[in-house]
Design a protein that fits this description.
The complex is a heterodimer of chains A (128) and B (351). Chain A is α+β, with helices and mostly antiparallel strands. Chain A contains 4 helices and 5 strands, in the order H-E-E-H-E-H-H-E-E. Chain A has helices at residues 2-17, 46-52, 80-83, 88-94, and strands at residues 23-29, 35-41, 72-75, 104-106, 119-122. A 5-stranded mixed β-sheet of chain A has the order 2-1-5-3-4. With 351 residues, chain B is an alpha/beta fold. Chain B has helices at residues 3-7, 26-37, 54-57, 75-86, 144-147, 174-183, 203-214, 309-327, 342-348; strands at residues 13-22, 42-45, 63-64, 73-74, 92-94, 99-104, 110-114, 118-127, 133-136, 166-170, 189-194, 219-230, 235-242, 245-250, 253-256, 260-263, 279-280, 293-295, 300-301. In chain B, strands 1, 2, 5, 6, 7, 8 and 18 form a 7-stranded mixed β-sheet that branches. Chain B has a 6-stranded mixed β-sheet with strand order 14-13-12-11-10-15. Classes of the chains: A alpha+beta (128), B alpha/beta (351).
């Protein structure tokens, strides 16, 4: 586990040093099935990537403070290991979301790294 | 008289003052300081039960990095420091109250009425309401608004209303647990529904709740409400999705506790011009379309507006100068520095 994170940091650093920004592709799927793939710079959060690209259904009322639950997403099954489990604080906030499932996360708490290049998340039908 | 006026509740208490500040967030608090330097006493009303606004409610522990001269400060620290800074001016706070009505009197002053029945007669109003009022979140269940006030409640004002009901409480925080413990003795039945078997509430409340569950006095369901059923005003049952499948739970009252969200709320009904749910102001006085009513902080809008705490502080200072001309007409406006003015230092209690 540690090795993975370390390797990823080194990679990020190398890319940054060479003046090239590390970008990851993230796909947001709307409840009606419409998909939108955006490029996100490493270090941002998935929520920030969504807001920068005007992805509908990610409200982020609190601005990313993990203080609301309006950036709720469902992480695609293939990506659940890479994105990890919610922290205790995030679990507490997920209490305020609607239709919470095992794959529920708050997108402001998922950091963009090389590991999640290709990530697929689903936007819930109702954000509240 | 409009129907709305007839329905307006009578005031329980009337306070005459120079200025009412709506909102006790950082901008509202700093407004008290700037007004105080100009001898304007303020009453501050906030819907929360403590000062700080978003800083206290959304991110008390989160560091803020862009407040001048404070490289790192948390929302709570900033609130505490502002409270200390405005202490010399003795502001009076009215917490857990929401200003519902605002109208102009014939003598040019304003009448404000809160949901708790406090009436203010004031010369100047400062709206520093940030993103609006913090209100309970309404679960996105179809038709729920029809049941609000009859079967669905977000707060309990009188416990007796719940006597004999089949009560469902949804949530896992202190509100949900406290009301579970308080209402269980008077309810006909009580079901607590939470999405997981972990509770954010104080451990001793959770213990008490578990004891009641063990005694068979409270039913605990781990699941989520997906549907409400009833005649359009009176609740008859709800559908609950659990690990075992979907179950229909008969009930006559439901209390959902899903935290708070910000809504513009009653501000929208005060006859002020609005721009995408924000209040347009000029950048000289930060006055709204209604003379004597000012708006500062996140709730206002003008070309180039930035929703920053520091912008709100600046707006408060300029607003206070304009407010002084209304509160003390004809008085010579003298600009002074706190560093050197004996009269300002006297007001601050440092001389």
């Amino acid at each position: 586990m540690d090795l993975g994170t370390g390797a990823c940091l080194v990679l990020t650093e190398l890319k940054l040093r060479s003046g090239e920004r590390l970008m990851a592709k993230i796909t947001f799927i709307q409840p009606d099935g419409q998909a939108q793939t955006v490029e996100a710079e490493a270090g941002l959060t998935v929520m920030e990537a969504a807001k920068l690209n005007n992805v509908p259904g990610i409200e982020a009322e609190c601005g990313g403070a993990c203080a609301c639950a309006t950036c709720h997403v469902y992480v695609d099954e293939l990506w659940r290991e890479q994105t990890g489990k919610p922290s205790e604080m995030e679990e507490d906030m997920l209490d305020f979301a609607f239709d919470v499932r095992d794959e529920s996360r708050l997108s402001c708490q998922i950091r963009v790294t090389a590991d999640i290049d290709g990530l697929v998340v689903r936007v819930p039908a109702k954000q509240f | 008289m409009s129907p709305q006026d007839q329905a307006a509740p009578a005031a329980l208490e009337t306070i005459e003052t120079d200025c009412v500040v709506i909102g006790a967030g950082p901008c509202g608090l700093f407004a008290v300081f700037e007004l105080g330097l100009l001898d304007i006493k303020a009453h501050v009303v906030d819907i929360l039960d403590r000062p700080g606004g978003q800083c206290a409610e959304l991110y008390p522990e989160k560091p803020i990095y862009d407040v001048p001269a404070l490289p790192i400060v948390t929302g709570q620290e900033l609130t505490d420091r502002l409270m200390e800074q405005i202490k010399p001016f003795g502001p009076q706070f009215h917490y857990s109250e929401r200003v519902d009505g605002l109208s102009r009197l014939e003598d040019g002053r304003f009448r404000l009425l809160t949901d708790a029945g406090t009436e203010f007669i004031t010369k100047v109003v400062v709206i520093a309401a940030g993103g609006g009022s913090f209100m309970p979140k309404r679960p996105p269940l179809d038709g729920i608004e029809n049941y609000e006030g009859t079967s669905v409640f977000y707060a309990v004002r009188k416990m007796e209303v719940m006597r004999g009901h089949d009560v469902v409480i949804v949530g896992g925080g202190d509100s949900a647990l406290d009301w579970t413990l308080n209402l269980q003795p008077i309810a006909n039945s009580l079901t607590l529904i939470h999405r997981r078997d972990d509770f954010r509430a104080a451990p001793h409340s959770v213990e008490k709740m578990r004891a009641l569950v063990a005694e068979g006095k409270v039913r605990l369901m781990i699941g989520q409400v997906t549907k409400i059923n009833g005649d359009g005003a009176n609740l008859q049952s709800i559908a609950v999705k659990t690990a075992a499948g979907e179950e229909t739970v008969p009930c006559t009252a439901m209390l959902p506790f899903f935290g708070l969200t910000m809504k513009l709320g009653p501000v929208a009904e005060w006859g002020l011009n609005l721009h995408e749910n924000l209040i347009p102001v000029d950048t000289e006085k930060f006055e709204t379309s209604a003379p004597g009513i000012f708006a500062i902080g996140d709730i206002n809008w003008y070309p180039g507006k930035l929703k920053l705490i520091l912008s709100g502080f600046h707006e408060a200072a300029l607003m206070a100068q304009a407010a002084q001309r209304i509160v003390y007409p004809g008085k010579k406006v003298l600009f002074q520095y706190t560093t050197s003015s004996s009269s300002l230092q006297k007001k601050l209690g440092v001389k």
